């Protein structure tokens, strides 16, 4: 159970209090507010607050582009135009704040997205809970043999069992020792400083933070982290956030899917090849100027 | 009249529509929403949207510091502690979006605050209005003789009249020529591109933008721009924003006033002098290690 | 003459002093150091300092990716891989500092690139020079009739002459009044504060700044500002910088040209169309799911 | 031994190759280039590259402030003025790049400084070395009883021995299992993906990164991390960097020490008290408007 009963009571109280506001409201996101979406075995995301909606993107763009963009009928077209031409500032006008619980090794990847605001649970001040990420059997993947940062086939049988046994016992033993080191007693034991004791915890221990980000930077996060090359354990967070964003700003999210996620970037050389192919010419890798790897990536993307 | 009648109708419509939300609401700021606060002769600020309140700062701090900070009774103490010890991240959890109309030379100072989101009216796309900042008589200051970036006494009589005449006639003539250059007609005149014609406008022409910023960076803006060393024409904007912030996050704003605005920074050398003075020793500039200017600044700050 | 004789003497002195360093050196960029490259009628760029080279990009990437990337033989391949897969952080390891002289209306576009360091000449402290951008005849373009932010055909004859006359006389008159307002005299005239007097200057007046940026953000600047949609007056600066960058980091610049500048981004819908076309199917706009404008943009990019 | 013999050979080669440059050179920093400064038991910092020196700060400030600041004789005064009045942009004109080896729990604090460029060793791609931070006896501190994020007295005797035994054995066992899980063999064992196996490592394992930052943001880092409230294990890195900076930009570093590190910030209320005390009045905490804690902090700072 990711939330403590105390936290759940807080969520329930918040969901029972509805306020009046003169701000714009995104009905689809209101439904998500405060509720937890479980991710991995003990993690979650939940929306704490937000600002703006699809209309706020258009409103800001119209300040920039003036009267030519006034007609309300084409919000969708305007948003698609902004996304297509990399006009990123109107998307920065929306903001979302999430409460996230996640393993430390995922947090270390996540924090590299610098244009965001973060308050993380401090293990200098407070004691971390006894909660660790242990992969589900289908996530227990071998090292890929082709890709030095990827995963290959799923482990099974004795090897899988041994890995799970190691992960469980090491994190548990380390946590037990963490508690032992912290524990002052009445017989003169002082207890190690929390800021030191935490160094004995393994990287699958859970932490939590508040994370606030604007929509432009969130799309950048989603493009990189909801991608098939991202590590599975951060991708599931990105996927959960993506679903929330789809309900928050449906027009912007659809444009993002079309132009960023599902799109194909052709290099100058690849674009040349495609132009020739479309004219009926036969083009091969050795005359394309592209490396074998680039050629293969292009063929896969275009299903040639 | 800073707002067009069309814009005023929009504001009125927004003020007549009240929505329900599960988000936190800052009652003091709700009253400001959408309304214009006039600044200078044609400028204004108005609050378009916001996220968070004093409680949101504490909420984020408590995620970081854990259970030790749970008691609701001491929100004020917690906020003062955060401000005093430069714990800036919880203040980043609040966000505000303003619509600002301002002269271009003010916009050029303002934009140097990089950690903010901006959508400015584009004079490449659209035609600027015929509105210029002309200083009120009491703002018509001479160059300071002591301070190369400051103002001295107020101009009067013929000199003042001549300055006002210049400012009015030059901005007006330039604007007239701007319109003339833009104007295509039916007799073959093409009209100069808007992105070129704008170069003929003077720096007191008004522009407008949406400006979105978190509370930490807004405090930084206010500390520098509501300061007596800031140019009067940006300070009046900072002052107007300061009043809004006081109604939005009263506890954080009071802490900001106490620790940042009204505070005194002593250098190591100045602190040494003060320590000696408090012990009853007599200290003079020549033994202080401070320059004459630093010594004078310290004496003024401490009213010695 | 963009540089004063005093500045030119400084440049000459710097070029006559060569130092020893244990830092990496980019021979191609050393040749540019301190020299001015003229841009527009009075502007310039010149390289003041830099850090890193192509090898520094690889060095940083190899810290990240470890031993698998050690072979020195494939620096080019590594850099192309990083660019292709949007691994931006190694490019941030190179930094360049430029001295730029540019018209104010260009500076206002430029400054929107926030991830850079800037020190601009302050017209609060100092008096601006009497220098204005007046477009060359071939840059005197009419407003585009199709594109609200673009340029159409070049003005000629009387219309061109009238525009040039306006630009010259208005900037000159405004500058003359600027000097007049500033001028204190011995007969009691105080002189208007510099921070106020500057508001009478037109937006084609030249300013200057030091601008420091990392290579990743510089590429982003170049992609947007050396693009055919950028305003001509900023594009010439981007083009001049691009030539310098080509000499500084030839491998990275070539990769940037191939993957960013000359590349084509296909949306999900456009990619679907291309896949079908490559299989020999006939696809038309009305079944493509794309708007007429998007369809046209795709056809132009692929020369269909 | 923090550097491998291979890395040491690289350093030696770099120190044997001296290049010619037209860039400014900081002689004090040249001496540090490439050399390692050991920190903690296996960590280090070493300078990889840099840009600028004290003169570069003044050069940039003079672009801003114009001719009034031209006299070369007062570089020190100018730098002190900039620091005292929070003119931060000229300090951003200097940049330094460090190679740092540090425990993961230190890296997690360090990375919160967002305005910097980082390339970290990736445990998705590569296998981490068997190196862990084990505190020296004098760093083995108990939890503070007054300060929830601080340290108290040093542990000794059996308690100290038990802590060291735990830290050593847990990190070693976890690392052994990490290797075991990674190990593919010829008998069908696939080996766990590196990106998963790393989660079994404890937070005292060493990582390394390239870290590039401008001087303004580096001073901010040093102010927070070379402070007595910072955790000892990051403070020793900040101290080592501080020594390097003192040799790089001696004038700027001295100003930083005087105005930031050794200075005292008085709140408005505290400044009021000090003014009264300096006039000979007796002021006590209960009439000061300050909390007991603030009062105590002020008395300590001023040695009252």
Count of extended strands of chain A? 9
Decide which structural class fits the backbone of chain A: alpha+beta
- Mean pLDDT across residues of chain A: 93
Strand content of chain A: 15-25%
CATH class of the largest domain in chain A: Alpha Beta
Summary tags:
homotetramer, alpha+beta, five-stranded antiparallel β-sheet, 13 helices
Question: Can you walk through the features of this model?
Answer:
Four copies of one chain form a homotetramer. By secondary structure, chain A is of the alpha+beta class. Chain A has 13 helices and nine strands. The first copy, chain A, has helices at about 5-15, 25-30, 55-65, 75-85, 105-110, 155-180, 195, 215-225, 230-250, 250-260, 270-280, 285-290, 290-300; strands at about 20, 35-40, 45-50, 95-105, 115-120, 140-145, 150-155, 205-215, 265. Chain A is flat and about 85 Å long. In chain A, helix 3 (about 55-65) packs across helix 4. The first copy, chain A, has three domains: about 5-135 and about 205-260, 2-Layer Sandwich (Gyrase A, domain 2), CATH 3.30.1360.170; about 135-205; about 270-300, no CATH class. The two termini of chain A are about 45 Å apart. A five-stranded antiparallel β-sheet of chain A has the order 2-3-4-8-5. Chains A and D meet through helix 5, strand 6, strand 7, helix 6 and helix 7 of A and helix 5, strand 6, strand 7, helix 6 and helix 7 of D.
């Amino acid at each position: 159970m990711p939330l403590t009963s105390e936290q759940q009571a807080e969520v329930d109280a918040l969901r029972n209090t509805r306020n009046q506001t003169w701000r714009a409201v995104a009905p689809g996101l209101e439904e998500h507010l405060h509720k937890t979406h479980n991710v991995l075995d003990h993690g979650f995301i939940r929306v704490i607050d937000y600002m703006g909606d699809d209309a706020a993107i258009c409103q800001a763009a119209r300040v920039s582009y003036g009267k030519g963009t006034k007609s309300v009928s084409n919000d969708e077209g305007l948003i698609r135009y902004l996304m297509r031409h990399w006009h990123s500032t109107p998307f920065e006008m929306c903001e979302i704040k999430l409460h996230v619980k996640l393993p430390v090794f995922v947090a270390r990847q996540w924090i590299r997205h610098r244009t965001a605001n973060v308050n993380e649970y401090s293990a200098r001040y407070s004691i971390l809970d006894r909660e660790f990420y242990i992969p589900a059997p289908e996530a227990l993947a071998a090292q890929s043999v082709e890709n030095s940062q990827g995963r290959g086939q799923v482990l099974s049988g004795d090897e899988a069992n041994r890995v799970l046994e190691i992960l469980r016992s090491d994190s548990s033993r380390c946590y037990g020792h963490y508690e032992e080191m912290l524990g002052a007693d009445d017989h003169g034991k002082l207890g190690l400083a929390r800021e030191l004791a935490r160094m004995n915890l393994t990287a699958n221990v859970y932490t939590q933070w508040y994370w606030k980000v604007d929509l432009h930077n969130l799309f950048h996060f989603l493009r990189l982290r909801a991608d098939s090359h991202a590590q599975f354990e951060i991708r599931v967070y990105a996927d959960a956030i993506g679903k929330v964003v789809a309900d928050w700003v449906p027009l912007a999210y659809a444009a993002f899917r079309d132009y960023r996620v599902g799109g194909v970037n052709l290099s100058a050389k690849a674009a040349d090849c495609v132009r020739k192919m479309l004219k009926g010419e036969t083009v091969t890798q050795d005359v394309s100027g592209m490396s074998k790897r680039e050629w293969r990536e292009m063929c896969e993307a275009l299903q040639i």
